[in-house]
Amino acid sequence: MFSVTHHINIAESDHKMRELAINHLIHQTGAGGAIWLCPSSNTPRSSSSLTQTIDGTAFFVEYWGCHSSQEAQEELTSFQNKFPLLMRDSFFTHLTSHPEHWFRGDCAWIPLKNSSMGGILLFGLSGVPSELLKTRTEFLIRSLEVSLENHQRYIEAKQLTYIDDLTGLYNPRFLEQALNIAMDSLNKKNQGFCVLFIDIDKFKQVNDQYGHLVGSQMLTHIGKLIRSSLRKNDQVFRYGGDEFIAILYETELSTAKEIAERVRKSAEARTFRFPMAHIKITLSIGIARFPDHGNNKETVISMADTAMYASKKSGRNQVIVAQPEIHG
Questions:
Q1: Could you tell me where the beta strands, DSSP code E, fall in 8-127?
Q2: At what angle do helices 212-229 and 203-210 cross, to 10 degrees?
Q3: What is the Cα–Cα distance from 328 to 326, expressed in whole angstroms?
Q4: Among 254, 244, 113, 153, residue whose Cα is nearest residue 194
Q5: Does residue 3 have a pLDDT over 60?
Q6: pTM more than 0.70
Q7: How far, in Å, CA of 295 to CA of 108, rounded?
Q8: In angstroms, rounded to a whole number, what is the distance separating the alpha carbons of residues 279 and 277?
């Protein structure tokens, strides 16, 4: 038991923590399998999570120790059907209002202390007294809860180091990791990615004329404008000063240009209203694609940057795709 809890504590993901704990629960109790359920208002931590509606509420679901998905689905359906008769209230109400273990026949419900973490349904139990089950599971579950909470605090603290204080966007510290993710996708799916290098035209004039407070507010508004013009899975960074970078995963140049034009046109059409001023701005945007414009991350960023400066030299408020003759 102590060996298992040690491995849970040092696991690098909460999915791995659940895997270790639940597999040990199955082993200790002789259960046929287990189902983890978590209210879907919480972000799933694993690509193996499925969505299931129980008593009209959506849950993320993971199956463990089941011989087949059909077996797991049958057990969950049986659980849904039996629950109102067993507990006299809805599953979601019970999860959030009655955080206690219970054992009924061949199944056991083990909620985690924080209802946002959900709980674990053990099924296929045979002949193990309920008090013995509780004794065997309680220490492990408490360890899992503490590990999950600590892991979440670690993730939140780590994310703070990647967030730009002014705009709330990612900062350059996270750019390296995002590019690694994009390159990993290329290796797995043979899909390239595009980089948009975005600069606000004549932004110094905004600071000089209206002051740095207005300038800072402008940067925040423009960051939100860029974010809203991208796709859900794209990422945007405040690169420094009035420069932004967007990474468009698994994207061809034609699509990247359409997205960049959407960003440019949104900015051009927008009037930023402040108590003492109404301000209009434009954006110059350069595009480069990996691996078309470079065989490493640094080159692709540099090519997009060079294309952005070509946009400025050509009159600003343009989108330009990197070309070999532009580089250098």
A1: 33-39, 50-54, 57-64, 102-104, 107-111, 119-123
A2: 140
A3: 6
A4: 254
A5: no
A6: no
A7: 54
A8: 6
Catalytic one among 14, 164, 199, 242?
242
Return the DSSP state at 43: P
Average pLDDT over residues 254-266: 97
Cβ-in-10-Å burial (0-12, 13-18, 19+) of 267 comes to buried
Residue 199 sits at φ, ψ, to 5 deg, of -130, 140
Q: Which residues pair with 243 in a beta bridge?
A: 199, 240
- Dump strand ranges (E) for the chain: 33-39, 50-54, 57-64, 102-104, 107-111, 119-123, 193-200, 235-240, 243-248, 272-274, 277-279, 283-290, 319-321
CA distance 78 to 30: 19
Q: What are phi and psi of 187, to 5 degrees?
A: -65, -35
- Which tokens go with 206? 């905004």
Structure tokens at 31: 């259960």
Q: Measured between alpha carbons, how far is 302 from 22 in angstroms, rounded to an integer?
A: 48
Which amino acid, one-letter code, is at 61?
A: V
Terminal-residue alpha carbon distance, the chain: 61
Taking each helix axis from N to C end, the angle separating 14-29 and 130-160, rounded to the nearest 10 degrees, works out to: 170
What is the phi/psi pair of residue 234, to 5°? Answer: -75, 160
Q: Is 55 designated active site?
A: no
Sheet containing 243-248: give its strands across.
235-240, 243-248, 193-200, 283-290, 319-321
Name the amino acid, one letter, at 279.
I
pLDDT in tens, 220-244: 999 999 999 999 889 999 998 999 9
